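User: Here's a structure from my thesis project, written as structure tokens. My advisor, Dr. K., wants to see whether a designed sequence matches the one we expressed. Can you design one independently, without my sequence as a hint?
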């Protein structure tokens, strides 16, 4: 437990040994599950809880911050279990507790705590709650990063509780940004957290930032990582989020061609298709990328940042080989929908590879161009001419 001001306490749990979060994130710097207590003259509120794995420790931290008082309210900014995991236990400890949250989060909570009789106080965008000489204001911030997310603001202390926004998986003994001992690691984790959690939702990040614009903010209390203070890292985090979510100005179209090849046949097709693309878009950024040579994460990023893309695959044992699937495992499914895509490849006899990849693109709701372009074994001059035409037709279709 750490006192942030006379009335605001941090009751976060440090988890320095965590190495994977939510299946998809590496957490080389561990994490923290932050929770806060605001003690008003009339009532006390707890803002978010903690991961259920740490329920016993969290209970101790909370009791220390409450100083014998029973909290009147639990504010639920977001229902992901790393923050909502101790709610059932809190309701047992304080049966008179009222849960303050929005309607989307309330629906999730009923399915998390599995109770229909939850003591809920549902707030709308712009609502407020008095704690006596302290007030909490609420604004909805959907898709940052779940549909349920909301911001809570304490105007008397110009303190923002933005849930996962501005957070990161980073763990040091100190709670405040002024105590960060490894700033480069902190900055790496802030960016990585943004990319994994908010990267798919840049438009919602911009909307969320706009909702903060008229709040004077001295202190940000996120749900993971250090508390940010004005004059140390608060301004940098705000401007980083604005920059990372800003739409990128683009000149040349980005049309990467990803492929694998055992004997160069699929590569020959890729080269011819590329020439066809360049006949329509002479300035296109259309790199030929052999997935066996390239860094998988960098390829995933290129895929997700493309304007259109092509996948070339041989058929190996009746399927496409693993590098193609590894690439598609990195697809940002939220944003790849409607992205123009085409598939091609050389095969020997059965030729299932391109069709299987096309099915995956269909699952991702990409705008598939024509049927996959397949050639048996070594492409002839006529096959290469046809591949060039395929590339030109694909490019013409997205012009
Ligand atoms: C280990 C291995 C397994 C293969 N299995 C299949 C197969 O199941 N079906 C098929 O149509 N071709 C199969 N092939 C043939 C390749 O798809 C064919 O040689 C193709 O031209 C390779 O293209 P690439 O040079 O771009 O790798 C196989 C080739 C290898 C080396
Ligand atoms: Fe979350
Ligand atoms: Fe979280």
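Assistant: Designed independently from the structure alone:
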């Amino acid at each position: 437990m750490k006192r942030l001001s006379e009335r605001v306490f941090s009751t976060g749990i440090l988890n320095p040994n965590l190495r994977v979060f939510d299946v998809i994130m590496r957490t080389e710097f561990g994490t923290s599950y932050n929770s806060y207590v605001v003690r008003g003259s009339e009532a006390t509120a707890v803002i978010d809880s903690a991961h259920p794995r740490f329920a016993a420790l969290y209970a101790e931290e909370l009791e220390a911050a409450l100083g014998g008082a029973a909290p009147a309210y639990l504010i639920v900014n977001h229902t992901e279990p790393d923050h909502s995991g101790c709610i059932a236990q809190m309701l047992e400890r304080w049966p008179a507790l009222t849960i303050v949250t929005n309607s989307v989060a309330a629906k999730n909570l009923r399915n998390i705590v599995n109770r229909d009789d939850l003591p809920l106080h549902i707030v709308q965008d712009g609502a407020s709650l008095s704690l006596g000489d302290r007030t909490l204001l609420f604004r909805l911030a959907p898709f940052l990063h779940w549909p349920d997310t909301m911001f809570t603001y304490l105007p008397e202390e110009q303190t923002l509780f933005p849930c996962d926004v501005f957070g990161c998986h980073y763990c040091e003994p100190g709670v405040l940004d002024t105590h960060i001992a490894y700033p480069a690691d902190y900055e790496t984790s802030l960016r990585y957290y943004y990319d994994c959690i908010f990267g798919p939702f840049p438009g919602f990040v911009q909307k969320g930032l706009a909702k903060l614009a008229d709040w004077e903010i001295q202190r940000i209390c996120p749900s993971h990582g250090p508390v940010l203070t004005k004059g140390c890292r608060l301004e940098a985090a705000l401007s980083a989020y604005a920059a990372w979510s800003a739409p990128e100005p683009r000149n040349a179209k980005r049309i990467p061609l990803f492929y694998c090849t055992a004997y160069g046949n699929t590569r020959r097709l890729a080269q011819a298709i590329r020439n066809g693309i360049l006949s329509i878009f002479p300035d296109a950024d259309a790199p030929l990328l052999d997935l066996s040579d390239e860094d998988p994460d960098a390829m995933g990023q290129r895929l997700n940042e493309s304007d259109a893309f092509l996948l070339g695959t041989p058929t190996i044992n009746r399927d496409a080989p693993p590098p193609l699937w590894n690439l598609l495992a990195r697809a940002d499914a939220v944003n790849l929908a409607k992205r123009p895509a085409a598939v091609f490849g050389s095969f020997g006899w059965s030729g299932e590879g391109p069709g299987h990849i096309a099915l995956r693109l269909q699952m991702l709701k990409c705008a598939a161009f024509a049927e996959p372009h397949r050639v048996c074994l070594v492409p002839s001059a006529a096959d290469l001419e046809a591949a060039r035409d395929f590339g030109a037709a694909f490019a013409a279709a997205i012009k």
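When you compare it with your expressed construct, this may help: The pocket of flavin mononucleotide (ligand 1) is lined by residues 261-266, 314-318, 346-351, 377 (CB under 6 Å).
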